[in-house]
């Protein structure tokens, strides 16, 4: 959902605030771009989902026991429910167990009224009495403590009282939580909605299989972008492949017919963010009533990244066409945007000691995939804008400031979406939501 001004434009849609700097001013810094992408959105409304779809979501309403757990006195063993001292006359499955009688019971079975304990199956045996009637007696395997009063009976409410909170709001649900909610009597849970992210892949020169001929390139986005979006907390939709024509762009960003089902909260495009005759990102956004929120970032690679807002709280993230540049743009502005929409805090930028000198790059942050060895960050090789080799083996991304960094100095580092925050990365305090850059 888009952060709104109080004013509205025609048609009742919220007015879009542009975070872009005035023409002629420098592009936002890498840190500013992260914060602006986070600040431009507010969390999506919570949704009700069935238990089977709730794992991995953040709970927004506490889960309490709808009745006692367990909600009846139950047996903890296979055996017999007994009343009084033995031997016991074997009774049928009756709601009340008279003194001197026993009835067969299975683990989890309802303990009949009057039962004083459960005798384990291995501790008893059925023998006929003088009249040929079945009689339950203790065996030599029975322990001295058997049968003890209340033994092997799980009393009602032993696990939880009715109304007791079992899972607090804010919990990221795992399969154990789902099972607990089911035991507590719930069919659906209220969770924070995950943003639906439409994927639009562009370029008539892109091929999706085999070895490309000169003038064509292999698609690197289609096989992995959906997975990355899931790791960033989104629900991928698509991918939709289009050519380089303006009508195709307009239809894809319009969303209603491009993606079946729920309209994407965010649409991610690949390529088309330049200024050539085949780059239609900005024109399509304008014709759909949108506004540019970020138009270029002072970083390399990934400078020609664009973030736009569309009416009714939708966003478009324009990634550059080069694979590494696109991934750097995605973790710079796409990840914070999805965090904001998903109701999560902006992830912190950590610090790692640089193992190498990195030359200054005046006016821009250099994003360099790196590996961690013994607490040091080593810049990876093969990290050109169109290369994937260095990123494939990286642990994180160094955000080298414009002044560069010397070996032994701390350098800002982000983990990659598919790598957990390594203990090598010394986290800083999460940045708070701030006022957006003035238009």
What's this entry about, in short?
The protein has helices at 30-39, 175-183, 225-231, 246-254, 281-287, 323-341, 389-392, and strands spanning 47-50, 63-64, 74-75, 79-83, 88-90, 101-105, 117-120, 124-128, 134-138, 153-154, 165-167, 188-191, 196-201, 206-207, 217-218, 235-241, 266-270, 291-295, 299-300, 306-310, 314-319, 350-354, 365-373, 376-379, 396-400, 410-415. It is of the alpha/beta class and 439 residues long. The strands form 7 sheets. A 6-stranded mixed β-sheet has the order 7-4-6-5-9-8, with no helix packed on it. The protein has a 6-stranded mixed β-sheet with strand order 16-13-17-21-20-18, sandwiched between helices. Strands 22-24-23-25-26 form a 5-stranded mixed beta barrel.
Provide an overview of this structure:
The protein is of the alpha/beta class and 439 residues long. 15% of the residues lie in helices and 26% in strands. It has helices spanning 30-39, 175-183, 225-231, 246-254, 281-287, 323-341, 389-392, and strands spanning 47-50, 63-64, 74-75, 79-83, 88-90, 101-105, 117-120, 124-128, 134-138, 153-154, 165-167, 188-191, 196-201, 206-207, 217-218, 235-241, 266-270, 291-295, 299-300, 306-310, 314-319, 350-354, 365-373, 376-379, 396-400, 410-415. The strands form seven sheets. The protein has a six-stranded mixed β-sheet with strand order 7-4-6-5-9-8, with no helix packed on it. A six-stranded mixed β-sheet has the order 16-13-17-21-20-18, sandwiched between helices. The longest helix has 19 residues, at 323-341.
């Amino acid at each position: 959902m888009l952060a709104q001004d109080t004013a509205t434009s025609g048609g009742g849609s919220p007015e879009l605030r542009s975070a872009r700097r005035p023409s002629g001013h420098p592009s936002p810094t890498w840190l500013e771009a992260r914060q602006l992408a986070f600040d431009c959105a507010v969390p999506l409304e919570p949704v009700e989902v069935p238990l089977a779809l709730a794992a991995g979501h953040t709970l927004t309403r506490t889960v309490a026991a709808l009745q006692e757990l367990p909600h009846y006195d139950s047996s903890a063993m296979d055996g017999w429910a007994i009343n009084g001292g033995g031997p016991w006359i074997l009774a049928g499955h009756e709601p009340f167990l008279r003194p001197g009688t026993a009835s067969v019971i299975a683990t989890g079975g309802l303990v009949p009224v009057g039962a004083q304990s459960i005798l384990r199956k291995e501790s008893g045996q059925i023998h006929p009495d003088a009249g040929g009637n079945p009689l339950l007696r203790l065996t030599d395997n029975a322990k001295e403590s058997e049968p003890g009063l209340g033994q092997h009976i799980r009393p009602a409410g032993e696990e939880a009282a009715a109304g007791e909170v079992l899972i607090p709001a804010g919990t990221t649900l795992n399969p154990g939580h789902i099972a607990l909610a089911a035991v507590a009597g719930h069919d659906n849970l209220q969770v924070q909605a995950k943003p639906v992210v439409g994927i639009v892949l562009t370029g008539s020169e892109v091929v999706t299989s085999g070895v490309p001929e000169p003038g064509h390139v292999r698609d690197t986005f289609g096989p992995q972008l959906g997975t990355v979006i899931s790791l960033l907390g989104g629900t991928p939709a698509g991918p939709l492949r289009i050519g380089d024509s303006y009508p195709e762009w307009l239809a894809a960003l319009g969303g209603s017919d491009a993606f079946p089902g729920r309209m994407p909260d965010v649409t991610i495009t690949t390529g088309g963010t330049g200024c050539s005759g085949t780059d239609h990102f900005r024109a399509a956004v304008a014709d759909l009533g949108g506004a540019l929120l970020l138009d270029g970032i002072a970083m390399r690679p990934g400078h020609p990244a664009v973030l736009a807002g569309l009416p009714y709280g939708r966003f478009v993230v324009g990634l550059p066409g080069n694979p590494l540049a696109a991934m750097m743009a995605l973790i710079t502005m796409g990840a914070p945007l999805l965090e904001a929409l998903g109701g999560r805090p902006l992830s912190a930028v950590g610090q790692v000691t640089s193992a190498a000198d990195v030359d200054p790059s005046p006016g821009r942050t250099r994003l360099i995939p790196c590996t961690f060895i013994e607490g040091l960050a080593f810049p990876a090789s093969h990290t050109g804008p169109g290369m994937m080799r260095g990123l494939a083996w990286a642990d994180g991304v160094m955000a080298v400031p414009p002044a560069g960094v010397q070996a032994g100095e701390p350098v800002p580092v982000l983990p990659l979406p598919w790598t957990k925050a390594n203990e090598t990365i010394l986290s800083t305090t999460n940045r708070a939501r701030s006022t957006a850059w003035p238009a």
